Amino acid sequence: MKIGIIGAGFIGRAVARLAVQHGHEVMISNSRHPRTLASTMVAVRCQVGTAQMAAEFGDVVLVAVPFFAARDLAPQPLAGKIVMDANNYYPQRDGNEEALDNHTTTTSEILANHLRGARIVKAFNAILERDIEKDSRPHGAADRRALPIAGDDKEAKRVVSELLDDLGYDVVDAGALAEGWRFERARPAYCVPLDVAGLKQALENAGSSVAEGSWRE
User: Fold this and answer.
1) Which residues pair with 151 in a beta bridge?
2) What is the rounded distance in angstroms from the CA atom of residue 189 to the CA atom of residue 215?
3) What is the full DSSP assignment across the chain?
4) What are phi and psi of 175, to 5 degrees?
5) CA 126 → CA 58, 141, 177, 190, distances in Å?
6) Per-residue pLDDT tens for 127-167?
7) 64 in Cβ contact with 11 (< 8 Å)
8) Sign of torsion, CA 132 133 137 142?
9) Of 80, 86, 102, 190, which alpha carbon lies 20 to 30 A from 184's?
10) Of residues 198, 197, 209, 186, the one with CA closest to residue 89
């Protein structure tokens, strides 16, 4: 599969490495210029390009930019694309977003509203960058970690689920995009290594919250 990655930060690079290791073609981009990614191209063994090039390249596109930068993405190149949304809302970094603070919408719904026509699946937001390669396991492994997804497009979720499985993870479908709050920042399912049963339980307990930053301890 061809995977375009918009965002060359920790998450984007970790997913790129993992995807290449599993035989996928990857193009990664940042907000500057492809030449600034020369070392990444060599180290990861991937292609580099602009955000538009990565969008056009990918059968699936990962958006791994800070939440405050998501609205700067051009919608047109992503129209009709399956887009994995790895955004997370950190008010101290992104500024306060009233609708998120009031819990009247979710980060992925905001992105979907901006990228009209894209097939958004919330994925790869609930795992730390340091764990993406480390926690990958073969299908059927007893200690295999599960990752949550959410989305309104069933076919897009099927494709993303198959990709995550190929990359070494079980998948728990949390439901529609509006249910993505269940694994946003500071929820019990956020960035905690869990198997399928444990993740399902954490998603059910999403009404509670955990201490800020505890997932990095």
Assistant:
1) 121
2) 10
3) -EEEEE--SHHHHHHHHHHHHTT-EEEEE-SS-GGGGHHHHHHHT-EEE-HHHHHHH-SEEEE-S-GGGGGGS-SGGGTT-EEEE-----HHHH---HHHHTTSS-HHHHHHHHSTT-EEEE-SSSS-GGGTTTT---TT-TT--EEEEEES-HHHHHHHHHHHHHHT-EEEE--SGGGGGGGSTTSTTTT----HHHHHHHHHTTTS---TTGGG-
4) 115, -150
5) 22, 20, 15, 5
6) 999 999 999 999 999 999 999 999 999 999 999 999 999 99
7) yes
8) negative
9) 80
10) 186
Amino acid at 147: L
Range(s) of the domain holding residue 120? 2-216
> Tokens 């603070």 — which residue?
101
Residue with tokens 């990752």: 147
Tokens of 122: 């919330």
pTM value surpassing 0.90: yes
Q: Position 38: which residue type?
A: A
Report how many domains make up the chain: 1
- CATH number for 73: 3.40.50.720
C-alpha distances out from residue 35 to 50, 68, 88, Å = 10, 24, 27
Sheet holding 170-173, edge to edge: 47-49, 25-29, 2-6, 60-63, 82-85, 119-122, 146-151, 170-173
List, for residues 27-83, the tens digit of each pLDDT value. Answer: 999 999 999 999 999 999 999 999 999 999 999 999 999 999 999 999 999 999 999
Q: Residue 160 burial by CB count (10 A; 0-12/13-18/19+): exposed, middle or buried?
A: buried
